[in-house]
Amino acid sequence: MEYRGAIMGKAAKIMRLILAGASDSNIPFSGICNLLRRLGFEERIKGGHHIFTRVDIEEIVNLQPAGSKAKAYQVKQVRNICIKYRMGESDVKQV
How far apart are CA 65 and CA 88, in angstroms? Predict the structure, then answer.
């Protein structure tokens, strides 16, 4: 159980960083992808594009890595979706 808590903590931390908006260019790409999967998004990969969709979300999220980080404008898009659909740390599901 301790292991799950550590993973849950990482996803919650990424969510807090994204919602804070203070370090958009410093969000790990793997972290934002993991967060979206935990928020119930389905992931499809086509080349370097990671495309995330969810039945009850109108927008499609298309992410591409910039090295090991997510692109700042794409982090902003994820933040806007989280705010629009009122997603928070409590929506992050354990695996």
Answer: 23
15-45 tens-digit pLDDT:
999 999 998 999 999 999 999 999 999 999 9
What CATH number has the domain bearing residue 6?
A: 3.30.920.30
Residue 62 CB partners (closer than 8 Å, separation 6+): 49, 50, 51, 52, 74
Helix (H, G, I), strand (E, B) or coil at 39: coil
10 Å Cβ neighbour count for 73? 9
How far apart are the two ends of the chain, measured CA to CA in Å?
A: 11
Percentage, residues of the chain above pLDDT 90 = 75
Query: Alpha-carbon distance 76 to 73, whole Å?
Result: 5
Residue 27: which domain range?
2-91
